[in-house]
Amino acid sequence: MAEPIRVVVTGAAGQIAYSLLYSIAKGDVFGKDQPIILILLDIPPMLPVLDGVVMELQDCALPLLREVIPTDKVEVGFKDIDAAILVGSMPRKEGMERKDLLKANVAIFKTQGAALDKYAKKTVKVLVVGNPANTNCLIASKSAPSIPKENFSCLTRLDHNRACSQVAMRCSVSSDNVKNVIIWGNHSSTQYPDVHHAKVNIQGSEVAAYDAVKDDAWFRGEFISTVQQRGAAVIKARKLSSAMSAAKAICDHMRDIWFGTKEGEFISMGVHAAGNPYGVPEDLIYSFPVQIKNKTWKIVDGLPINDFSQAKMDATAAELVEERDTAVDFLSQYHSPVCFVYLY
């Protein structure tokens, strides 16, 4: 059997991690023959909770799980890791300005980026989940100059899955019969779920999504707003943020990085925009359609973009530019490592 890989999850005492850790430890993400050392990183007040999570993981008696390490120290959490799933972040509280949220998260992700730079393997694959995910990912990457920028990505797979599901329900097919939807831009309410290149398999025949649904007004209106606002709708109904679906999307994202995407299919993830073929400003983490092979992603090139799509893509890029400029300004104010504190 292979040597164990080291995987860290931050915010490991939170509800997303609680839905996530079992799937990772069971082999659903990195493979059924890949032993794992799981490192659970959280803030000091959460260590007693982490002890309970450790006990539960032990009690699952999972053959691939070789060791579980709970810690509140970045030098332990990021030591020689192969994969980092950064779930923990400061959430937006009532009355909090977006710039205050950005400032708090710049402190967290500068610290974690610097720790990755110092302690992690240079081949580490880093997935940022904590919001604002795109900009947090950018800050972490900027703070880890010795790790290739291509190793950093942020989660828009949940939005991608939501879009697939909406189309599938509309066509009365299972979600695995829908492929090549795209989430462009920011993981926020400005994101653009695009189905102009999507296909739906109906009774063995691949049909363009617009032809399968036959309702252009729905695609340009309710469909987009449903996907954009889905997180808020879950919170309103459940009084808690998406956890089960977020954990599933994290698993999908990391599994695709590890094993690649299917031939002829692409998925959505937030990646560095440098060299992109769609005119998106380069110093951003922006969600694109990507294909993955040998743990390397490539933005899908050559997709025709109509005026409707271009306007939506530009709007979400503008929001990301504003976020980036605010965050980079805060970043320049930090000259020494800061403690990271987060809730979720």
Automatic annotation (TrEMBL):
Belongs to the LDH/MDH superfamily. MDH type 2 family. NAD(+) binds at residues 42, 105, 129-131. Gene3D superfamilies: Lactate dehydrogenase/glycoside hydrolase, family 4, C-terminal, NAD(P)-binding Rossmann-like Domain. This is Malate dehydrogenase. It comes from the Eukaryota. CDD domains: MDH_cytoplasmic_cytosolic. Residues 156-330 form the Lactate/malate dehydrogenase C-terminal domain. Keywords: NAD, Oxidoreductase, Tricarboxylic acid cycle. Substrate binds at residues 92, 98, 131, 162. Catalyzes the reduction of aromatic alpha-keto acids in the presence of NADH. Plays essential roles in the malate-aspartate shuttle and the tricarboxylic acid cycle, important in mitochondrial NADH supply for oxidative phosphorylation. Catalyzes the reduction of 2-oxoglutarate to 2-hydroxyglutarate, leading to elevated reactive oxygen species (ROS). SUPFAM superfamilies: LDH C-terminal domain-like, NAD(P)-binding Rossmann-fold domains. It comes from Anabas testudineus. InterPro entries: L-lactate/malate_DH, Lactate/malate_DH_C, Lactate/malate_DH_N, Lactate_DH/Glyco_Ohase_4_C, Malate_DH_AS, Malate_DH_NAD-dep_euk, Malate_DH_type2, NAD(P)-bd_dom_sf.
